[in-house]
Automatic annotation (TrEMBL):
This is Adenine phosphoribosyltransferase. One of its GO terms (biological process) is adenine salvage. Residues 49-154 form the Phosphoribosyltransferase domain. It is found in: Cytoplasm. It comes from Sphingomonas edaphi. Keywords: Cytoplasm, Glycosyltransferase, Purine salvage, Transferase.
Length: 179
């Protein structure tokens, strides 16, 4: 008998040397194409959540697909965390570090009510920079980040440890060594 993790792992395609030599890209589009796999992934993520959630804060872009489905499953609203300049109206933004510089995430200033219970969601956790920027945005808006969930973790890059150090319960369905 195989576990859910084994079944999901079989649906994730690894593309060597993308986007540059030495990187093993974990492609979730193959998992997303499989209706049973997608459903099982969303169910498994939902099973890791304790207590009610008001909002799922999904990070652009693949996080939107997982976050939207998870929000429906949890009976929560969906808060979109986007690249800066992509949202109409008044926003707040946070910078975060990349290997080669910085980038910026934003959300609508009124998207999160004070004390809302918020779950941050994305497809993959690497260094944690993007997820931590999303956490800071939600906290600046007065939201209570109750956790962060990911399909995949690359634990040797330290993102999970960085989130835990920031007081965030971070969990992933799959972990892959290497990057």
């Amino acid at each position: 008998m195989t576990s859910v993790a084994d079944d999901l792992r079989a649906l994730v395609r690894t593309i060597p040397d993308f986007p540059k030599p030495g990187i093993q890209f974990r492609d979730i589009t193959t998992l997303m194409l499989d209706r049973s796999g997608l459903s099982r992934a969303v169910d498994a993520l939902a099973d890791t959540v304790d207590g009610p959630i008001d909002l799922v804060a999904a990070i652009e872009a693949r996080g939107f697909a997982i976050g939207g489905a998870l929000a429906v499953k949890l009976g929560a609203g969906l808060l979109l965390i986007r690249k800066d300049g992509k949202l109409p109206g008044k926003t707040i933004a946070e910078d975060y570090a990349l290997e080669y510089g910085t980038d910026r995430l934003a959300m609508h200033v009124d998207a999160c009510t004070p004390d809302a219970r918020v779950l941050v969601v994305d497809d993959l956790l690497a260094t944690g920079g993007t997820a931590l920027a999303a956490v800071r945005l939600v906290r600046r808006a007065g939201g209570n980040v109750v956790g962060a969930r990911f399909l995949i973790d690359l634990p040797e890059l330290g993102g999970g440890d960085a989130l835990v150090a920031a007081g965030v319960d971070a969990r992933s369905l799959l972990a892959y060594e290497g990057h």
